[in-house]
Amino acid sequence: xxxxxxxxxxxxxxxxxxxxxxxxxxxxxxxxxxxxxxxxxxxxxxxxxxxxxxxxxxxxxxxxxxxxxxxxxxxxxxxxxxxxxxxxxxxxxxxxxxxxxxxxxxxxxxxxxxxxxxxxxxxxxxxxxxxxxxxxxxxxxxxxxxxxxxxxxxxxxxxxxxxxxxxxxxxxxxxxxxxxxxxxxxxxxxxxxxxxxxxxxxxxxxxxxxxxxxxxxxxxxxxxxxxxxxxxxxxxxxxxxxxxxxxxxxxxxxxxxxxxxxxxxxxxxxxxxxxxxxxxxxxxxxxxxxxxxxxxxxxxxxxxxx
Length: 306
Ligand code: ASP
Known about the structure:
Layout: E1 6-10, H1 21-44, H2 49-63, E2 82-88, E3 93-100, H3 106-116, E4 121-123, H4 124-133, H5 145-157, E5 169-174, E6 180-186, E7 207-210, E8 214-220, H6 222-228, H7 230-237, H8 244-257, E9 263-268, E10 274-278, E11 285-289, E12 296-298
Helix pairs in contact: 1-2, 2-3, 7-8
The structure holds aspartic acid (ASP).
Residues 12, 14, 67, 83, 166, 168, 186, 188-189, 198-200, 219-222, 225 line the site of aspartic acid.
């Protein structure tokens, strides 16, 4: 254990410069708040990895600035259905929800699945009822004017199958005790069928954490990510001696070449080293560690190759 602790968050791999400064600066601002919030927890507590990951993702879900929680995209029927997952690297406990409606913070429901049930994934209406009966209020996530405009544009242009407005959120954390955690939340893909569940609800695909290996979360087109169990793949490379940056690059190379997918991953190794890679125009991300004065934030810059 190196004693280095900190948090990395991302805000989705599908951004392009055409999105405009307003939304990009809002994402930047909320990612900074998310890593600061996570670090606050990590500074106060030894074993705060899971809480820091959940809080950072909660903040981004509640902001409405990402394709997660309040800001979630619409299904083909103009509904909102979300996926989220969280994992504790100290014991491999995980919890997830798929195609859940009517909650602002699906990550909180995923955490309750982890803590209160013998299961790893709850889906649909029963997942919302479970939330309701465990103190998470149900509220409709509305189809706002902006979302409806996007819906119309995408249905007309048919461009949604590739670059659309993606902004899934994720976090990977290492705490003072060397515990790792990962958390991810998304509205999924625009114009998806009702009931579609993507990688963000699937342990090993959208998220993974194991104190002995590393923690990773993925973003991009979920079907391509699921085929490769991408987050687990990143974590499997590291105990074999691969540097975390190289592991992330290798995972994205496989995403591009093997499943013809697009997206990105962020990861932390057990020494608190940072890995980030994506094959898209941009991937908003931020990180903050105990040996840094302020958060490092980037959107379009490529990371140093490993
Ligand atoms: N991976 C998410 C999904 O397919 C979308 C994203 O990362 O933006 O549901």
